[in-house]
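for the writeup, i need someone to sanity check this before i put it in the appendix. the sequnce is what the collaborator sent (i think, or maybe the updated version? ugh). structure was predicted straight from it, no edits. if anything looks off just tell me and ill rerun, i have time this weekend
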Amino acid sequence: MSNRKLKMGMIGGGPGSFIGAVHRISAAMDGMIELAAGAFSSSPEKSAETGKELFLPATRVYGSYDEMFEKEKQLPEEERIDFVAIVTPNHVHFDPTKKALENGFHVVLDKPMTFDYEEAKTLNKIIEDTGLLFCLTHTYTGYPMVKEARHLIASGVLGEIRKVYVEYPQGWLWTSLEKTDYKQAIWRTDPSKSGIANCMGDIGTHAFNLAEYVSGLKLTKLCADLNIVVEGRTLDDDGAVLLKFDNGASGVLMATQIATGAENNIKIRVFGDKAGLEWEQDNANTLIVRHPEAPDQIYRTGGNVPYLSSWSMENLRTPGGHPEGYLEAFANLYRNFTRCLYARKNGETPKKEWEDFPGAEDGLRGMAFVEHVVKSGKSNEKWTKFEL
């Protein structure tokens, strides 16, 4: 297996899809994956159009994902797809993922995991039963300095964690963009496609995942305030959540899509009884560690940096001073997933650093987070217990 690229099939990612292109670019970045097949739209005509634009042979472009699974299974092992990337809106996550796994294909799925929590529980069981590889694209865990932050906390540099602040401010839905023909706004604000939450499902899950990933802590209860700021919407476009973690630490999560003028500067700050740290996407190459009785330490990405851990070094791509950006972070998820898949096919044991990508548990916890946040937001009770 190590002498050929892995073959990827894609579901979704047709005309008007932003995230489909991101997946294709990221998957191709390391030269280990080739896009070999796809069912790019619920419209067979649009799927065929996208396949042609991507220079795929017409015989490997399908009118539905059911057709793709059925016909790809019939191909010789060396020709058929090895895994599927699913890049559809939330309401079309569960069924294609379930069928892909049941047909023997590994899966990379765009977050959140499913349309609702019940689907997530079912899907988690299927992933466990099949034993196939599953990656959920929580992009921000792929940044080298995010991995370094996690490593420093796990190594005890910050001491006992006391406080976690995580925020994700966006401004793109500051007005009724969904009333235009803008596809990305239309489905995200539609409960039949997005689920019970918009903002908290779309970017709040990213912030929650980042908080647990970096801190190494698990959420035990929460208190949420959700808002609909733009008149006429039925789903949240703004919110804040108080957090309590399993070691007794507290936290605050903010996610909003009506922060006028804001872009995508997700940021996390963690404070322990020895030191604190902070990282933000707008300055992604830098991790700041703050000590109470010493100058700040500034960690920077770059090849051959002696003070960085193997966790960040395994995910570096550029020399010092060159940005490690969003696409590179996304590609790190694909690279680690691919390295693990190669190892499995070759009967080898993957490096522990390669196994560091979001999976089924992250997806299940993310959907539980959405459910509990909405429940808390509607309740008169102050705190809601977080449980799976």
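The longest strand covers residues 161-169. The longest helix spans residues 326-345.
thx in advance!!
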